[in-house]
Amino acid sequence: MTYDYDEQNIFAKILRGEIPNTTVKESEHALAFKDIAPQAPHHVVVIPKGPYVTADHFATEASDDEIADFWRTFGSICRELGVTPDQGAGYRLIANAGSDSGQEVPHFHMHILAGRPLGPMLNS
Ligand code: AMP
Predict the structure, then answer these.
(1) Ligand 1 atom with minimal separation from the 95 CA
(2) Ligand 1 centre from 87 Cα, in Å?
(3) pLDDT tens digit string along 44-96?
(4) Which residues, at least 6 apart from 117, have a Cβ–Cβ distance to it below 8 Å?
(5) Nearest Cα residue to atom 5 of ligand 1
């Protein structure tokens, strides 16, 4: 079993420049932009540029360079936002995968949420 990547998903269109985004950071293998429907004062979505559907897909099939670049990009964004617990009040990282999680966009992405108390980890 493997994943079929939908080239028409909205993040693929963002990566191809077909729809606009508010870029926070771009690296060789990753792009980070503001979520269009922010759930917190800081709500950034970080995606790899490669065609990965979920976090597990990325973790098993991406190259070491892609994985390192993705995490380094994430780390620098958190520092630049000033939300790391050593500088600020912290953040939450969310990566939905599949139907039970409610994943809407089938391109692996991590949500960085910060800027207010974020409540319990799950609502139910
Ligand atoms: P998920 O439910 O984890 O798949 O999250 C998908 C996220 O993508 C949601 O938080 C949406 O608000 C966000 N989103 C959808 N379309 C766009 C867009 N064009 N630009 C930025 N964020 C988007």
Answers:
(1) 3
(2) 27
(3) 999 999 999 999 999 999 999 999 999 999 999 999 999 999 999 999 999 99
(4) none
(5) 104
> Ligand 1, atom 17: nearest CA belongs to which residue?
36
pTM over 0.90: yes
Quick one: which of 101, 102, 97, 16 has its CA closest to 58?
97
Catalytic residue numbers, as ranges: 109
Residues 6+ apart with CB under 8 A from 62: 48, 50, 52, 70
Ranges of H-type helices in 47-115:
55-61, 64-81
CA 8 / ligand 1 centre spacing (Å) = 14
Q: Which amino acid, 14?
A: I
* Atom in ligand 1 nearest the alpha carbon of residue 96: 3
| Residues 6 or more apart in contact with residue 82 via CB below 8 angstroms | 88
